[in-house]
Specification:
The protein is globular. α3 runs antiparallel to α4, α4 crosses α9 and α13 packs antiparallel against α14. Helices cover 43% and strands 13% of the residues. The chain is built from 14 helices and 11 strands. The chain starts with a helix and ends with a helix. The protein is an alpha+beta fold. It folds into 2 domains: 2-260, Alpha-Beta Complex (set domain protein methyltransferase, domain 1); 271-404, no CATH class.
Length: 407
Amino acid sequence: MEKFQEWMDGCNAKYPDVTLESHDGMGFGAKLATKRNADDFIIQVPQNILFSSFNAFQDEVIGSKLFNFCKSKVDSGMDKLFLNRFSVYCFLVLQRNLGENSYWVHYLRLLPEWKEFKQNVLNCLDEDIAKRLLMGTHLQTLYEKQKSHTALVFEMANEFCHMFSDGPIHFSEKDLSWAIACFWSRALVVPSRDGLNELAQSCEAMVPLIDLLNHSPGTLSRFNIQDDCITLSYQTSIEENSVLYLNYGARSNGDLLAYFGFTFPNNPADTVHVVTPDNVHHILFYDGIFPPQLLDSVRLLMPTSQENTSPVYKLKSDGMDWREKLLTFQELDIDFSNIGAVIDRHNEAETLKHLENILMDQCDRMHELMKCKDTPLYENITCYCNGQLRILSYFKNLILKMQSELY
């Protein structure tokens, strides 16, 4: 850490009264020794030391060829965001392989090793463990999505390395996996230069020193550009001796576990993903309502009647949107003839019962998952499952109330 701070000072980074220290269970972090007012700058980091696509394309060894390679892929229709990330992965691996000769050596030494990611980050689990552990959960979807991303990175890196006729630069799959894990766990969206889009106002980048700060929901942090530096400030005053945090955004425990390796009890941004039999994904939030598309998706699977029915629920209308009113159980009189299916009382009762079974199956899967104590992720997986059960319990109670309102 001392060498890293000397390097940051030599780069003209500014972080007055900020001390860097180890936090129990959370790695390194930062604390502010003196009080600061809202919008005062706390940390300032020069743009030229970011791990960003722009800086990757400036590298003397691979920069020009990497830019031309990525630009050709853009011209063939490949996604710019993916290619920006790919360029940073390559840049990270190159600098790590340079060892002591890398300008970023003291920053790179602070980054976790691959074995640490494998012990803490869900997307870094061995495939056989992940398959056994995650089957039938939304975590499996996140894992498989990242594995597809990683496979494409391996393919692209192999193609890129063979552009070097004087003995191809070699990026091993292990090193690339490490770079991907580093990037996804540390990259921030900052107002910096995008290597592939001159008009972009921001980009994803790893920002030395600032990316040591841990996540706390509700933190009102912000980034600005000043004197060609990324500047961190806060929208509220910061008291002396306060630990500094960032807000990574509205991240569910599934996302946090998959990409960062931690979870929060009672995470306000937590979600449950429900997949209906027609293979449509729906998202539930605690204290929220059933998405109308979820109810309609299940309704359309139910047998229907041609019976002319009176309103299905014991509710009266006052002119507000019927879907929102139904799901929050305000007074409403519903016309079901406009949703594309004939809905009667029997149909709606079957719909609610089917939906309840879907939620019960997910509860059962969470209870099974919490029994898997032979994994290094057990504590975080338990926290994830408890969050899922909290939301599922809320919506099961909502179904009971809906059933009680049926005629």
